[in-house]
Write a structure and sequence with these properties.
3 domains; 520 residues; 3-stranded antiparallel β-sheet; Creatine Amidinohydrolase; Creatine Amidinohydrolase, Chain A, domain 1; single chain; 5-stranded mixed β-sheet; 16 helices
Length: 520
């Protein structure tokens, strides 16, 4: 029997893309994090656990974006410690320790190559690297540092040994992510004026949830939340969970503003997505299924080197376009209806988020055109605000102002406060290593943030308006780089004006020549 050999990292690298982020980029991000951290502190960044897809098959692994951002590492079973100051250990000085998945020739033959200790040293530029099994016994006293770390996932899976070792070393307590989010929002934004709204949104209906019911800190603020009690709550929260809040603040600040290297990848992933949207417009036929249109977009993504999509593709025809996160994509024919496609490529970890809405038969009806133009007009007005220093909240104010005025003019609503009937979501979010990326959602926009601008109007059947408007769902979503004086539209390769959309749908597609055997 032939022996199983470790697969060569060098030979494998020859056929890989050459535009990955460099080890110097990741080292620079670690240094930027250290500048934000207080004295005598350490940031602890874990890999994500694996997730079961079916029986003994896992989902394709997606790395923790934070761990990738700070290291370039894309595997599971790992934890990275980033120290503020240089430490002096028995085996030399260090300001970072990396415990990574060990190499295993037999497993690698089945599930792919691992970097291992030497690969992480040579390719990612770390000096102090150990197998993850060594973390539990490694002589580092985490109790003497100010710790910054993210929430632990509900299902810890294969990462549980590392989480357990960290809890023991640091003497920290776990907290359910839902409870942690609620506590964090109250601690950051809670005031006597808004606390009832916060609790209504985040805690309503969870009275019997054991995680919510048994958390003393949360119950204390639910039972009493006057100004004095809120001050006491925030002090206690900081004492217990300040490390989680600080970790979130640091990573939001860093990842919210893109570096030049990141912008190269953002431009590429958005361009790939935009070209795919344009090709889907050219290829659409009324007899096509939603799934077939999805497949066309995914093929274009893969053709240009995108490894994945940043989120489950949304392809909704007619009434399905009025469902914000419609993901079934199983209508067998799109017919002569509007098709809403919200699909974004993921290239080297960076996600696009682009939406286009177009008529499958090539022509908007008058009602569809009126709604489309209104959404377009709102987008154009918001684009004017996408510059450094503008309060993020102004984008939402402007969107509601334009949409409400337009809906009143069309007779769909009578009062501006009713705009939420047909515009139920927000207009923008950060974009990057996550499709809903980390970044500051309060305060001003900053140069080199990347955000979406995505107004939409959705009028499902049964709405309180003339039936001629029913089942019209329109969203136009573009990706914008915040500039010093004006925004930079990254997704302009996907037609936006209704006239350009109709023109593109009438064009020939590279997929028009394809003829598949009939499936009987």
């Amino acid at each position: 029997m032939a022996s199983v050999q470790c697969f060569s990292q060098e030979n494998a690298a020859e056929s890989l893309p050459k535009d990955y982020l460099t080890k110097e980029f990741h080292a620079g991000r670690r240094d930027a994090l250290r500048k934000l951290m207080p004295a005598n502190s350490v940031a602890v960044v874990f890999a994500y656990p694996e997730r079961v897809f079916s029986n003994d098959v896992n989902y394709v692994y997606h790395p923790n974006p934070d761990l990738y951002y700070f290291s370039g590492y894309k595997e599971t079973s790992a934890v990275l410690l980033i120290f503020k100051e240089m430490q002096h250990g028995a085996d030399g000085d260090y300001n970072e320790l990396f415990f990574v998945q060990s190499r295993d020739p037999r497993r690698e033959q089945w599930t792919g190559r691992r970097l291992g200790v030497e690969g992480v040293k040579n390719q990612l530029g770390f000096a102090k690297v150990y197998n993850s099994e060594e973390f539990a016994k490694y002589a580092v006293d985490l109790k003497k540092y100010k710790l910054f770390y993210d929430n632990f996932p509900i299902d810890e899976g294969n990462m549980k040994p590392l989480f357990d070792a960290f809890r023991a070393k640091a003497e920290v307590q776990s907290i359910a992510p839902g409870v942690s989010q609620t506590l964090g929002i109250i601690a950051k934004y809670g005031s006597p004026r808004n606390i009832d709204r916060i609790l209504d949104f985040y805690a309503k209906g969870k009275q019997d949830d054991p995680d919510f019911k048994n958390n003393e800190l949360l119950q204390s603020v639910i039972s009493k939340h006057d100004s004095v009690s809120l001050v006491a709550f925030k002090a206690k929260y900081s004492e217990q969970f300040g490390g989680v809040t600080g970790y979130s603040d640091f990573t939001n600040e860093l990842r919210g503003v893109k570096t030049a290297e990141e912008m190269d990848l953002m431009r590429k992933t958005v361009k790939i997505s935009s070209l795919a949207h344009a090709e889907a417009m050219r290829a659409v036929k009324p007899q096509m299924s939603e799934t077939e249109l999805e497949g066309i977009m995914l093929y274009v993504h893969k053709h240009y080197g995108a490894e994945d999509e940043g989120y489950p593709p949304i392809v909704g025809a007619g009434a399905n376009g009025c469902i914000l996160h419609y993901e079934e994509n199983n209508a067998t024919q799109v017919k002569n209806q509007l098709v809403l496609m919200d699909v974004g490529a993921e290239y080297h970890g960076y996600s696009a988020d682009v939406t286009r809405t177009f008529p499958a038969n090539g022509k908007f009806t008058e009602e569809q055109k009126a709604i489309y133009q209104l959404v377009y007009d709102a987008q154009e007005e918001v684009f004017k605000l996408c510059r450094d220093g503008v309060p993020y909240s102004d984008l939402e104010v402007k969107t509601r102002e334009v949409l409400s005025a337009g809906l009143i003019k069309l007779g769909l609503i009578k009062d501006a406060k009713d705009v939420g009937k047909y515009y139920p979501h927000g207009v923008s979010h950060h974009l990057g290593l996550d499709v809903h990326d980390k970044g500051a959602y309060g305060g001003p926009l900053k140069e080199n943030m990347v955000i979406t601008v995505e107004p939409g109007i959705y009028i499902p059947a049964g709405s309180d308006c003339d039936k001629k408007w029913w089942n019209i769902g329109v969203r136009i979503e573009d990706d914008v780089q915040i500039g010093k004086d004006h925004g930079i539209l990254l997704s302009g390769d996907a037609p936006r004006k209704w006239q350009d959309v109709e023109k593109t749908v009438a064009e020939k597609s590279v997929f028009d020549m394809g003829r598949f055997p009939e499936l009987k």
